[in-house]
Amino acid sequence: MYSEPLFRPPSEARSLIIQVTEGCSHNKCRFCYMYKGKQFRLRSEEEIKAHIEWLKSYYRDPERIFLADGNVMCLKTEKLIELLEYIKSQFPSAKRISSYSGPLDLIRKTDEELKLIRETGLELLYVGVESGSDNVLSMMQKGANQQQMIEAGRKALKAGFKLSCMIISGLGGTEYMEEHAVESAKVISAINPTYFSLLRLVVEEKSELSMDIRQGKFHLLTPLQVIDENIMMLENMDLKDCIFRANHVSNYVNQAGTLNRDRDMLVERLKKFRKSGFVPGGSDML
Ligand code: SF4
User: Fold this and answer.
1) How confident is the model at residue 282 (pLDDT cuts 50, 70, 90)?
2) Is the Cβ atom of 29 under 6 angstroms away from ligand 1?
3) Atom 6 in ligand 1: residue holding the nearest Cα
4) What is the CATH number of the domain that holds 110?
5) CA atoms within 13 A on the CB side of 240
6) Which residues of 118-136 are buried (b: 16+ CB within 10 A; e: fewer)?
7) Mean pLDDT score of the chain, rounded to an integer?
8) 281 within some domain
9) Residue 285 above 60 pLDDT?
10) 26 within a domain of the structure (yes/no)
11) Is the CB of 43 under 6 A from ligand 1?
12) Ligand 1 centroid vs 71 CA: distance in angstroms?
């Protein structure tokens, strides 16, 4: 009853996953192979209800629910509201409902629509900003630019959502390393999300980016360059009470704190690793 592969953010590991859409409506990012084998589609109301019936036989009282796949916010607002009401009626124990959201889907909805969706129960949105640099976003065919990322993030927060933004360390390659660090810090600072996660670029062999690497069009950062880039990014951050995590399996150095409060400590820690010349773990290719 799940259309695989199925993805969710690491922090949703204990959540019940309800698959509302299949795939990603954008599906063009050069670094991403998540949904390449899936044709994007919205599941019908009947399918979703049958899926929920099936889930109820396994999960009785979930506390957290994650709506998959790619971008549930592309649903028409009235459909999404109906769906949220139905999910709450079927799983009254749920204390939090979350989903991924594409930046353009957030921009397309009015402030009132977003507020209504938030009030109906969708609480936390994960937005893959990936980079704040227009050059990197365009090179990776992300389909949204710096200004749109900022607008989308601010709109979500204004409507009352909790917002988790992700940046991929190393996504600019050697060519845009500095720009990626500085501009990503600029965008995340302009949004000031509830959570900011920093992952590291790990290249899936079948992705278009892997082809770019083989053709010499994209050059991966060395582990020490990744640390340098992380330092630069953190040094340029200007955030208030933002929960920061770089504790994904891809990260060379696990980091956690609140920004900007813990920024100096986090930067000092990275500098120590940098000085030792030893960067633990990690592989650049899947
Ligand atoms: S990174 Fe996100 S928006 Fe881009 S193709 Fe993958 S799932 Fe879709």
Assistant:
1) very low
2) yes
3) 32
4) 3.20.20.70
5) 2
6) bebbbbbbbbbbbbbbbeb
7) 94
8) no
9) no
10) yes
11) no
12) 9
Distance in Å, CA 136 to ligand 1 centroid:
14
d(CA 190, CA 125): 17
Q: Which helix (H) or strand (E) holds 97?
A: strand 96-100
57-73: per-residue pLDDT in tens? 998 899 999 999 988 99
| pLDDT per position as a tens digit, 208-232 | 999 999 999 999 999 999 999 999 9
Within a domain: 283: no
Query: What is the C-alpha separation between 12 and 9, in angstroms, rounded?
Result: 5
- Residue 11 has what DSSP assignment? G
Range of the domain at 166: 11-276
Q: Are 180 and 229 within 8 A, CB to CB? A: yes
DSSP strand pairing (21-22 vs 41-42): antiparallel
The whole-angstrom separation of Cα 125 and Cα 100 is 6
In a domain, 2, yes or no: no
Q: Interior CA angle at 269 toward 202 and 257, to 5°?
A: 80
The rounded distance, in Å, linking the Cα atoms of 40 and 71 is 10
pLDDT band for position 283 (50/70/90)? very low
pLDDT greater than 70 at residue 286: no
Take residue 185 and report the two structure tokens written for it.
């810090």
- Mutation pick for ligand 1 pocket among 26, 38, 209 (CB with most ligand atoms within 8 Å): 26
**Residue 81 in contact with residue 116, Cβ under 8 Å?**
yes
Domain count, the chain: 1
